[in-house]
Amino acid sequence: MGVFTRMKKECILLDPKVKDKEQLLRQMTLLLAEHEGAAQPDQLYEDIMKREEMGSTCLGKGCAVPHARTEALDRTVIAAARLTPPMKLDSPDDQPVSLIFLMAGPTASAGLHLKILSKLVRLLNEEPFREQLLAAPDEEAFYQLLCDKESNYG
Question: In the prediction, which pLDDT does 41 show?
Answer without folding.
Answer: 86
